[in-house]
Write a structure and sequence with these properties.
By secondary structure, the chain is mostly helical. α1 packs antiparallel against α3. It is globular and about 55 Å long.
Length: 200
């Protein structure tokens, strides 16, 4: 059970951290806290990274393996739970509005595509360890593929690019295997409208 406890704790970091990263102060909006803004958005780029969220399904699939049905189930459950808790927590603390679930239904439904896919990869990694390379390769490629390399100056507001593109208008298509090494890595992260107190 300790291995499941570990992955739960690790998954909680992007789940809650990404929601907290949507807070915006008046000083950030007025340009009086650029250093804080830079730090907030940089952290947002990390905890909102698509491949980071995808890796949770891969890890869960590997932990639940080598039985593939368990890997598929674990990969699906963890990403769906992360998304649901992320949105609910953001709604609770006031950074998301009451339309958060309906406006991001694509990501909830998409978890039933991406979750089994990445969970299966984790399960198969017992037999084909090289499949785990998808995580480090994705981490390296994602900033270049989706043009999210942090600049020194961020515009006011919640994290942009891979960590905070509003949904659904700027969201990518579906969360599916063809985008694994590039576009897909950005698809898996939750895309949320920024409607918190200081974000309108």
């Amino acid at each position: 059970m300790s291995r499941y406890k570990t992955i739960t704790i690790v998954a909680a970091v992007p789940t809650f951290g990404y929601a907290l990263g949507h807070f915006t102060t008046t000083a950030m909006l007025s340009g009086e806290a650029n250093s804080l803004l830079f730090l907030r958005n940089t952290v947002g780029l990390v905890v909102g990274s698509g491949i980071l969220w995808a890796s949770m399904s891969v890890w869960a699939g590997r932990v639940a393996g080598p039985r593939l049905w368990r890997s598929i189930l674990a990969g699906t459950v963890i990403i769906f739970a992360m998304l649901a808790i992320h949105y609910a927590f953001g709604l609770l603390i006031g950074v998301f509005d009451d339309q958060i679930f309906s406006s991001n239904a694509l990501w909830m439904y998409g978890s039933f595509i991406s979750g089994p896919t990445f969970g299966l990869i984790g399960g198969l990694s017992h037999k084909f360890p090289w499949l785990l390379l998808i995580v480090p390769l994705g981490l390296i490629a994602e900033p270049f593929v989706i043009n999210s390399i942090p600049a020194r100056v961020f515009s006011p507001g919640p994290p942009s690019g891979p960590a905070g593109s509003p949904a659904p208008s700027s969201s990518h298509s579906a969360l599916s295997l063809p985008f694994i090494c590039g576009k897909l890595s950005s698809n898996l992260k939750p895309q949320v409208p920024m409607t918190g107190p200081a974000m309108k």
